Amino acid sequence: MKAGEMYRIEGPAKVVVRRGRIYATGVEYSDGQSFTVLRARSLAVRAVTDSEVELVLGPGALLEKAEPGEEIIDEWEAGISTVDPSGVIIVVGMIDVGKSTMTAMLGNKALARGYRVAVIDADVGQNDLGPPTTISLARLTRYVTHLRQLVAEKSIFLQATSLERIWPRAVEQIARAVEYARRVWRADSVILNTDGWVLDEEAVVFKRQLIEKIKPSLIVAIQVEKELAPILNGYSNVLILPPPPHARSRSREDRKIHREMGYGRYIFPPVEIAVSLDKIPICNLPIFKGIEMGEELRKILSRALGLGVEKAYQVGSRVYAIVEGDTWVVRKVSGFQVIGLPHDFERGLLVGLEDAERFLVGLGVVKKIYYDKRKAIIYTSSDVEKRMGEVKCIRLGLVRLDDNFNEVEKAMNILKAESE
């Protein structure tokens, strides 16, 4: 490679610098150093000096020379080299504009300065650090070309693969992740990658509330035109950069497949465990915490609802009823708010098994709740089975999976029944 030449590499590939200096993801690699490009991920590299490079290309890998103006790594490098990557940096932008790559670059820059660095991935739909549906945290101790090269050390279960209906909780939990990284890990630099939900009014409210909550030292905005203006309006600590011209755009189906592979990776091979719901309760559905109604009260409730009632539990001013059929019911009856949960409503629900600090121990899928035995049958991984002693509660998710971990439904009705 001649000095200044750029190439695009789509993995899987390994790059070994035999002579000279090569730039990638905010880092210069020299004689004898190497880096990898993950499968289905693309990376632009530039020769800083005349260099000799060995490339090992795996199945399906691609290598092509980038023409002048086709890549923006110099523009990104110039932009982030002017800022101090300490404090909290938040990366915002639409989907498929390179937010994860920018997060890796900023982390590498902070590490090069000798900072203690934490990376947080708050993209619940396409999380690179941990499972789908989570906010995940990891410490950066070596240079990376992709966030996926890191392994989540802590994760927070956000229940869903998009934040439209649950963004107020997301604000609180992302702030908790930032606070944990700074207080417990004593990170000098926290780089926060966000999801690509930015275009509608509620998304703007979410992102602005998040910014107000975490008070970042810098907002790095990857903007195509001026679509981020409503989010950025009024903030001065903003670095606006363009997206890569050759950013790989993934379809909705591609993203769904990516998530489903993620569920399988964190649950497979599944083991079936029986959990006592008295010892490990459901965090967000207090059905066994209240008073179980007797047969006569269930008959009265059944007549009021026009549905058969199998079980019913009074918790304060609410009544949780397990009803026949597949209809969800929310109704006022004699001063009580009655939540009617369909028989088998729990089947296939993704759940988070949480520890005492409300961090994720692991994911699971509910097979069945046995109300008489007050037990749940859950599929989870053998690794999580070994750590069940750490689990203090089970949080029901808003995604329903089939036996092959394919998404079959967004179970948003759970929000009607949640107690927190």
Automatic annotation (TrEMBL):
GO terms for molecular function: ATP binding; ATP-dependent polynucleotide 5'-hydroxyl-kinase activity. It catalyses: a 5'-end dephospho-2'-deoxyribonucleoside-DNA + ATP = a 5'-end 5'-phospho-2'-deoxyribonucleoside-DNA + ADP + H(+); a 5'-end dephospho-ribonucleoside-RNA + ATP = a 5'-end 5'-phospho-ribonucleoside-RNA + ADP + H(+). Residues 93-267 form the Clp1 P-loop domain. Its cofactor is a divalent metal cation. It comes from the Archaea. Keywords: ATP-binding, Kinase, Nucleotide-binding, Transferase. GO terms for biological process: RNA processing. Its EC number is 2.7.1.78. Polynucleotide kinase that can phosphorylate the 5'-hydroxyl groups of both single-stranded RNA (ssRNA) and single-stranded DNA (ssDNA). Exhibits a strong preference for ssRNA. This is polynucleotide 5'-hydroxyl-kinase. It comes from Pyrobaculum ferrireducens.
